[in-house]
Amino acid sequence: MAFDTESFDILLSTVQRFVRERLVPAENHLEEHDEVPPELVDAMKDMGLFGLTVPEEFGGIGLSVSQEVQVNFELGRTAPAFRSVFGTNIGIGSQGILMDGTPDQKADYLPRVASGELVMSFALTEPDAGSDAASLKTKADLDGDHYVLNGTKRFITNAPRAGAFTLMARTGGPGASGISAFIVPADLSGIKLGKKDKKMGQRGTMTCDVILENVRVPAANIIGGVPGQGFKTR
Ligand SMILES: Cc1cc2nc3c(=O)[nH]c(=O)nc-3n(C[C@H](O)[C@H](O)[C@H](O)COP(=O)(O)OP(=O)(O)OC[C@H]3O[C@@H](n4cnc5c(N)ncnc54)[C@H](O)[C@@H]3O)c2cc1C
Q: Does pTM top 0.85 for this prediction?
């Protein structure tokens, strides 16, 4: 159910004021230091921005799509790097769990995503698989009740901040039906991050490679629990 109109109007005017009084004045800092000041990240958490689209039952605000678009219009009045801080949490990082996750996965992850305690990134792209994402090569081999993941993910937004990744890997044969979506905690042994990418624009946003070398992920971390559904989850 969408956030009621009166509460939404209050949220929208709070976001407008935040953009005007806190974010726009911080644009020079962003440009010079290539980072979003930590006190602004904390303010975003306090405002509930990390959980804008997470349903209220999981601790979020539960905006409808049209309400989210209106908030995004306001955030569009300043540098995109600010929205990028929480953009993966309310979008590609958490939506797979929201749409396809088991009840346990939703209860475990979504409240922490909504509060900003856990930053989630989305790891699909690879050095040789971008537009043609179904050709991805990252392998997930079953070993007992774990999968062993090997591969490299490229241009992963918020990877340096991430506590976990929604990560696509191949559990089966070629094509989309061989791909599964995993929840991969960022502190698992065998995960390395590449150097932060230097971009032509979007100062303050963070992307980098995520390299997986024999990373053991519990089979229970497949979103929805069923292998081969990753492309639908995405
Ligand atoms: C700032 C930034 C943040 C990103 N964040 C993430 C992230 O968080 N997670 C993630 O998984 N990925 C992320 N990506 C990766 C992004 O999804 C890929 O860059 C995108 O899918 C394109 O893939 P590619 O870069 O390999 O380009 P390619 O697929 O190699 O495409 C290069 C060019 O060829 C064109 N092209 C490709 N195929 C065809 C075709 N069949 N016909 C005609 N033209 C074609 C494309 O339109 C493009 O202009 C990010 C990228 C950027 C730049």
A: yes
The single residue listed with the structure tokens 């009166």 is 6
Which atom of ligand 1 is closest in space to residue 202's alpha carbon?
Answer: 1
111 and 126, same domain (yes or no): no
* C-beta separation of 120 from 88 below 8 A: yes
**Residue that is last in its domain, among 96, 115, 134:** 115
pLDDT in tens, 133-188: 999 999 999 999 999 999 999 999 999 999 999 999 999 999 899 999 999 999 99
- Pocket probe for ligand 1: among 125, 126, 208, the residue whose CB has the most ligand atoms within 8 Å is 125
Number of separate domains in the chain: 2
> In the listed set 81, 115, 149, which residue is the last one of a domain according to the structure?
115
- Is the same domain home to 132 and 165? yes
3-state secondary structure of 122: strand
- With the most atoms of ligand 1 within 8 angstroms of its CB, the residue from 94, 131, 161 to mutate is 131
**How large is the average pLDDT for residues 25-54?**
95
**What is the DSSP pairing of strand 146-157 with strand 179-185?**
unpaired
